[in-house]
C-alpha cells in the first residue's frame, strides 16, 4: 500500500494550515492508526516539516531525515494552548507498516507506542508555528534493521487551560516512553484532538548497505575492496 498523496506548497502553507481534509481520516484508518493509536481520526491536516522532508499522510522518509525534530504548522487560535505528541508504532496487520507503536518489530510489538516527543502549553510564536514547554525531548524514529516500517504519528491537541506541569513531571514521561497511552493522557488532561499527520520509516536488514546508499560521504568504496 502506497501513501495517500497530497501536495502542500511550502510558500503557501499558512493559507491552508488546519484545513479539514477528507483524506486524513481515510489515511489513518488505512494504516491502522485508528484504532491502534487513537479511536477516532482527526479531521484536520497537521503540517509537519523536517529539514529535508515534508510529511504527508504515510510518506516514507529515511531514518536520517528524522534526526532533527520537525516544525509543526497549523491554524492555531490566538491565546489557546496546544499539546503536540509524536508516537512511533508498528502496524501488526500490515507487514509494510510500522510506527514505533509496535516496538521492537511488527511481528512482536511488545513495547508498542513509544513516545518520541511531547510539548505542552504550546502557543503560536510566529504565524502557524508553535513554541511550548518540552515534557519529553525529541527522539528520532529509530527502527531495528529489518523490523519493518514504523509509523511516526504526529498529533495536535487543543487544551482548555494550562496543564499541571508538576503532575506531568511526576509521570517521568521523558524516561518512561514505552507503552505510552495517548488516549488516557488526553482524557486525564481534557485535551481535544484537532489535527494529525503521520509518516513511515524503515531500516533494511542490510544495515550497512542502507546507510551507504543514504549517506553522500560514505567511504565504503574507498576502504572496502
From TrEMBL:
Keywords: Signal. Residues 1-18 form the signal peptide. This is Jg5473 protein. The gene is jg5473. The keyword Acetylation does not apply. It comes from the Eukaryota. InterPro entries: PEBP-like_sf, PEBP_euk. PANTHER family: PHOSPHATIDYLETHANOLAMINE-BINDING PROTEIN, PHOSPHATIDYLETHANOLAMINE-BINDING PROTEIN 4. Coiled coil: none annotated.
Amino acid at each position: 500500500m502506497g501513501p495517500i498523496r497530497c501536495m502542500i506548497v511550502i510558500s503557501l502553507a499558512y493559507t491552508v494550515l488546519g484545513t479539514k481534509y477528507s483524506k486524513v481520516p481515510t489515511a489513518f484508518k488505512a494504516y491502522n492508526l485508528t484504532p491502534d493509536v487513537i479511536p477516532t481520526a482527526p479531521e484536520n491536516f497537521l503540517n509537519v516539516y523536517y529539514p529535508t522532508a515534508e510529511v504527508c499522510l504515510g510518506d516514507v522518509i529515511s531514518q536520517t531525515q528524522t534526526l532533527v525534530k520537525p516544525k509543526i504548522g497549523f491554524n492555531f487560535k490566538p491565546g489557546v494552548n496546544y499539546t503536540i505528541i509524536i508516537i512511533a508504532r508498528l502496524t501488526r496487520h500490515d507487514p509494510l507498516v510500522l510506527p514505533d507503536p509496535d516496538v521492537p518489530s511488527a511481528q512482536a510489538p511488545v513495547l508498542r507506542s513509544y513516545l518520541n516527543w511531547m510539548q505542552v502549553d504550546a502557543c503560536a510564536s510566529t504565524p502557524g508555528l508553535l513554541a511550548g514547554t518540552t515534557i519529553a525531548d525529541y527522539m528520532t524514529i529509530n527502527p531495528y534493521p529489518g523490523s519493518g516500517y514504523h509509523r511516526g504519528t504526529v498529533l495536535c491537541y487543543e487544551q482548555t487551560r494550562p496543564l499541571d506541569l508538576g503532575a506531568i513531571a511526576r509521570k517521568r514521561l521523558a524516561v518512561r516512553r514505552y507503552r505510552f497511552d495517548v488516549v488516557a493522557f488526553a482524557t486525564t488532561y481534557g485535551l481535544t484532538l484537532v489535527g494529525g499527520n503521520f509518516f513511515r520509516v524503515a531500516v533494511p536488514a542490510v544495515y550497512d548497505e542502507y546507510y551507504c546508499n543514504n549517506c553522500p560521504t560514505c567511504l565504503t568504496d574507498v576502504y572496502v575492496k
